[in-house]
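Fill in residues.
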């Protein structure tokens, strides 16, 4: 079995990866790191750099777990991409980061995290960024 974590290079993404590494170590499972790129986007701030990925991989080595990076491209629906990858790899846990949004922001844009929490066939661990 394995654990899937959605990663973006933000405080929230870093918190999700830390939690996912802890869970993978606890469960003695492989970690699948997903950083999905929006198809056709010329600039996408959620794309991790090679340095970000190497740093995360080094953290998994330090923790004594194996990890793979799943490179994927999504069209308009990141939540669907995460759910599809979780099904494809039959994961034991999905780890996602949560960020605070206003009520208006939730209404207008929806929430990928909310959709993952409600529609996932697998357990989901939702993590907030550290309040430092």
């Amino acid at each position: 079995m394995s654990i899937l974590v959605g990663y973006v290079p933000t405080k929230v993404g870093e918190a999700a990866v830390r939690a996912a590494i802890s869970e993978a170590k606890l469960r003695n499972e492989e970690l699948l790191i997903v950083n999905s790129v929006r198809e056709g986007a010329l600039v996408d701030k959620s794309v991790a750099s090679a340095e970000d990925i190497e740093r995360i991989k080094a953290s998994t080595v330090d923790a004594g777990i194996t990890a793979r990076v799943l490179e994927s491209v999504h069209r308009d629906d990141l939540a669907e991409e995460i759910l599809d990858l979780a099904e494809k790899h039959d994961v034991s846990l999905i780890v996602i980061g949560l960020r605070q949004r206003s009520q208006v922001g939730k209404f207008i844009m929806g929430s990928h995290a909310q959709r993952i929490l409600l529609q996932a066939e697998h357990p989901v661990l939702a993590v907030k960024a550290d309040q430092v």
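The beta strands are 2-6, 30-38, 67-74, 93-98, 124-128.
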